[in-house]
């Protein structure tokens, strides 16, 4: 079906409305019809028309921010590789800082962070909308650079995913805090905390339980 000439403006308004509403209430608590009304769309099913369903809209919302985050993270990873030394803290920064830039982008950034946090904290978390398996993706590159610096047991226990989820949830909460405009200390401390999570030793108890689970399987 052909899109109307002003369609891209309608699509943009729908995404902006979704960001605002998701930031306030979460991506699971807002209907597509509400988004259409908030965007001032003439047709109450405009969101369905443009995005088919909720997952399509969420994917489009994430994609709206993707290029900026990819550029920022690749630049940090380029600098890491140019330095030529193993540095978990630098890689933690490459995870945190591109996302933390969203704290300075008002409702749009807050909506992105809240949506991402919702995806990662579902009963069955998903990273599929982040396209981490795409060739050249910055998160795939980050994972590859980080893996040799972690204990194999930590890799098997999904330490990188748990760190990503922690970081995103903390940033989403921060984005909801009213009146805070200087995020430098918060972001620096978050990088430190992410470094600690990534670097934490796997205890003997955890190794034993991990071995028991493998034996059962």
From TrEMBL:
UniProt xrefs under Gene3D superfamilies: Tetracycline Repressor, domain 2 (1.10.357.10)
Organism: Pseudonocardia acidicola
Keyword match DNA-binding: yes
Domain HTH tetR-type: 8-68
The entry's keywords: DNA-binding
PROSITE patterns from the UniProt entry: HTH_TETR_2
Record protein name field: Helix-turn-helix transcriptional regulator
Source superkingdom: Bacteria
DNA-binding region(s) in UniProt: 31-50
Keyword DNA-binding: yes
């Amino acid at each position: 079906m052909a899109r109307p000439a002003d369609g891209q403006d309608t699509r943009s308004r729908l995404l902006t409305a979704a960001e605002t509403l998701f930031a306030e209430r979460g991506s699971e608590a807002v209907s597509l019809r509400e988004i259409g009304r908030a965007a001032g769309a003439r047709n109450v099913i405009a969101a369905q028309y443009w995005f088919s369903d909720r997952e399509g809209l969420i994917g489009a919302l994430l994609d709206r921010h993707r290029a900026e985050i990819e550029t920022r993270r690749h630049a940090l990873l380029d600098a890491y590789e140019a330095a030529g030394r193993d540095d978990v803290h630098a890689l933690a920064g490459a995870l945190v800082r591109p996302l933390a830039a969203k704290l300075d982008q008002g409702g749009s950034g807050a909506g992105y962070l809240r949506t991402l946090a919702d995806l990662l904290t579902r009963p069955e978390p998903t990273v599929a909308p982040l396209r981490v398996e795409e060739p050249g993706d910055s998160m795939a590159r980050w994972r590859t650079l980080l893996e040799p610096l972690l204990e194999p047991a930590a890799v098997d226990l999904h330490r990188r995913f748990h760190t990503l989820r922690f970081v995103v949830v903390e940033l989403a909460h921060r984005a909801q805090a009213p009146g805070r405009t200087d995020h430098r200390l918060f972001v620096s401390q978050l990088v430190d905390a992410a470094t600690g999570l990534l670097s934490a030793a796997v205890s003997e108890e955890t190794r034993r339980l991990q071995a028991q689970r493998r034996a059962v399987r």
